[in-house]
Design goal:
The protein is of the alpha/beta class. The protein contains six helices and four strands; from the N terminus they run H-E-H-H-E-H-E-H-H-E. Strand 2, helix 4 (about 65-75) and strand 3 form a beta-alpha-beta unit.
Length: about 130
């Protein structure tokens, strides 16, 4: 991480699904001077099957609570990252996307997180062409 950033990498993409990725990135960034992290963009994802932040944890990953829990968890793991510059809905099925977009569910949570300044750009990363 340190070498990549020092050589010009300025965007880091991660996800709760990527095992220890968020925690490891958080440790690496925490070891750097704030000035060396200046201009660095960090993005993560929601909607992953990662207990306790998904269906396995007793709530739906695409629900309002599920999205809020996932983003708070990601920021906690990333330590010095105060805002996710991007937050993607991670590989949803069409049914999951419909659920996420239903009023009162995940999309409303991401909009609230944007209002709070905890999330920047929001989008979808998916495999299904539909």
């Amino acid at each position: 991480m340190h070498r990549a950033i020092s050589r010009g990498i300025n965007f880091i993409d991660t996800s709760p699904l990527y095992a220890e990725s968020e925690r490891r990135i958080g440790v690496a960034l925490d070891q750097m001077d704030a000035s060396d992290r200046q201009g660095l963009l960090v993005g993560s994802k929601i909607g992953d099957e990662c207990a306790p932040y998904s269906n396995n944890g007793g709530h739906n990953a695409f629900s309002y609570f599920g999205v809020m829990s996932s983003v708070v968890h990601s920021l906690k793991q990333l330590k010095v990252v105060e805002k996710l510059d991007t937050c993607l809905v991670h590989d949803p099925t069409m049914a999951e996307l419909e659920e996420f977009l239903t009023p009162g569910n995940g999309m409303d949570a991401l909009r609230e997180l944007q209002r709070q300044g905890l999330v920047g750009h929001i989008g979808i990363g998916c495999l299904e062409h539909d």
